[in-house]
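Whiteboard transcription, Tuesday session. T.W. wrote the structure tokens on the left side:
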């Protein structure tokens, strides 16, 4: 399994992966909207023998300086529970840090994301439409979430999709 940056040639296979992993096309619309708006901060795929088996994307947020939001993360249904999702998450967080990003937010299962250092407490200082018991944050660098005014805005496509169904 190898992990690399995406190119537009991958988008069709990524769409198929997202639809299969999430059982619908909401995440396909999300990725298309993020790409069109230029709101993707980082996007990687995992591939095995020319086939894309995993995908992770981060969108930019405003509020925290150089902040990202992780979504979506997916692994092909027939390749889940083999460590691909974890490897994609770890490598992408390392790369994000190297690229100068300072923090990451995620809405997800704390049982899964806490293993990468995501923390419910760290997100509590921020007002977001997603605030609550599944909303977590991670500092990529020390002080990455310090000295913020506490208001977090996500890429507009998130609200558009929720509003539009
Ligand atoms: C969630 C997902 C990306 C995990 O990828 P993966 O390659 O299967 O995960 P890994 O093999 O790296 O990790 C497996 C571990 O995650 C746990 N896990 C897998 N999916 C989980 C989930 N939805 N919630 C909580 N834990 C989960 C497993 O219990 C396992 O834990 P263990 O190692 O302690 O037994 C993958 O299952 C997936 O694509 N799911 C459908 C889409 C989705 O729900 N994405 C998350 C959106 S926030």
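and on the right, the sequence the group agreed on:
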């Amino acid at each position: 399994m190898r992990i690399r940056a995406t190119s537009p040639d991958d988008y069709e296979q990524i769409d198929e992966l997202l639809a299969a992993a999430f059982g619908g096309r909401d995440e396909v619309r999300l990725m298309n909207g993020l790409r069109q708006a230029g709101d993707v901060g980082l996007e990687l795929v995992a591939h095995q023998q020319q086939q894309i088996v995993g995908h992770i994307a981060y969108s930019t947020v405003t509020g925290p300086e150089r902040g990202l939001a992780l979504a979506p993360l997916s692994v092909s249904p027939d390749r889940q529970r083999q460590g691909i999702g974890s490897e994609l998450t770890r490598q992408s967080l390392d790369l994000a840090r190297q690229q100068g990003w300072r923090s990451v937010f995620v809405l997800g299962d704390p049982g899964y994301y806490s293993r990468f250092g995501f923390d419910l407490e760290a997100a509590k200082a921020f007002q977001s439409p997603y605030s609550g018991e599944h909303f977590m944050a991670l500092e990529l660098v020390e002080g990455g979430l310090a000295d913020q005014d506490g208001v977090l805005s996500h890429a507009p496509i998130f609200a558009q999709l929720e509003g539009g169904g």
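Someone added at the bottom: Residues 21-22, 72-75, 80-86, 108-109, 111-112 surround coenzyme A (CB under 6 Å).
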